[in-house]
Amino acid sequence: MRDLTRRDFLKGTAAVAGAALAAPALAGAPAGKLSAWGIQTFAVEGDKLIGEQMQEFGKLKNVPVEYVVVPYAEMPRKLTAAIEAKAPPDLVMLSGQNIQYYRNRGLLTELTDVMNDIRKQGGGIYESVLPQSVFQGKSYAVPFEPELAPLHVRTDIMKQHGVTLPIATWSDFTEACKKINSPPKFYAWGMVLGRCPDAHWNILHVIWGHGGKLVESDGKTVAIKSEGTLAALKLIAQWFQKDKIIPPDTVTADDAWNNKVYQSGMAGVIDNQASVYGWLEKNDKELWKNTTLMRHPRGPAGSFQQTTSWAWVIFNTSKNVDLAKEMIRYWLEPSRFDKVVQTIGGRWWPIYKDLAKGKFWADRPAYSIYPEMLAQARLDAYAGPPTDASGEVFERLIYPDMVQKVIVGGETPEKALDWAHDQIREIYARHFKS
């Protein structure tokens, strides 16, 4: 399986102030001290607040707490090193695709009791992400947000060119992009096609809209090779090669690339989590006012949203399992968690349904599409459940490589799809040996 640390992930680390935060260390926490690693939110105030809340918990329990902010790109390497040293932190924030990977290796503590408590709070939770953390009816993680990545759209430029929003279909989207496209300084569609996770998700939204899927509902039968996937692949190639509505440097893009091209005014549409929208509200009010969030256009099969989640896990080597469980419950108390969500500016849609009805969201009508998106949300293992095999497809970046074989390597879409099918079939055959 391809090592996550080899990806061309985000570069750089935002500075985070506050005594609650410490530099990452490989040593695990001794009994009586609680260590937690959280992913960088790209909102300095939010990272600081999470650390402060954990420090407050430590004071209540009279226990030292160390909270470490880790950039997304660095987490796999640091966590792998800590596990190899048999000293991972007590509590770690993981993305949904990685939960089953660590669970399958016997490294995670069961958290069904905590998850059951969380489900009773805040008017209930959005449960679309729970399959990522459940195995044989038991929870091994506690998700705290259903991840969504709507389209960010320049309303002013669309209006200037007579484009009515929202755009209904991928066909209409293509025509709208042709109207607003003005290379080389401005490209309509900032679609990520580099070898990075954002490309996997950007591509997946087009595949699903055209009826493609990874596997059948049994979770084992590979189904990527279909007319739907082929149609999506041909459309992406058309956008890049013929219509030229996607910037050419997308082929080397990392997960920060589309943020940058949109924030700098070089793209009219991007497919990304609302971290961009939140950043604009704080840093570029003019562009924020001229931006809306939009569902993905419909293809012949419909409009679907990939979802995942950030979640807390506890490694079973921890000497502080009960304390770590209490920390999760404390941090996810609805009013306390609501402060975090608001501070990071909408990057996380709250897991609690009541919080999603709050004033913060009502005052930002662009988010009104989220409940509808969640109703059509899928995990990327669709049409099967998350497995180690589907996780390896994601980690090895099969979808971005498939597209690059066409737009960089010059292969036909049919040949590139055959390659992807063979790669995925080998992965599933290895993981599901009879």
Percent helix range: 40-55%
Number of structural units classed as domains: 2
Largest beta sheet: strand ordering: 2-1-3-12-6
Task: Compute the number of strand runs.
Answer: 13
Q: Enter the CATH topology name of the largest domain.
A: D-Maltodextrin-Binding Protein, domain 2
Quaternary state reads: single chain
Proportion in β-strands? 5-15%
Rounded mean pLDDT is 89
CATH architecture of the largest domain: 3-Layer(aba) Sandwich
Distance between the termini: 20 Å
**How does the major sheet shape up?**
5 strands, mixed
Give a short overview.
With 434 residues, this protein is of the alpha/beta class.
Write structural notes for this entry:
The chain is of the alpha/beta class and 434 residues long. The chain has helices at residues 44-61, 75-84, 96-104, 112-119, 155-160, 170-180, 197-209, 227-242, 257-263, 275-283, 285-289, 321-331, 334-343, 359-362, 370-375, 388-395, 398-407, 413-431; strands at 34-39, 65-70, 91-95, 134-135, 138-139, 142-143, 151-154, 187-189, 267-271, 291-294, 305-306, 310-314, 377-378. The strands form 4 sheets. A 5-stranded mixed sheet has the order 2-1-3-12-6. Strands 8-9-7-10 form a 4-stranded mixed sheet, sandwiched between helices. A two-stranded antiparallel sheet has the order 4-5. Strand 4 (134-135) and strand 5 (138-139) form a beta hairpin. The chain starts with 33 loop residues before the first strand and ends with a helix. The model is unreliable at 1-30 (pLDDT under 50).
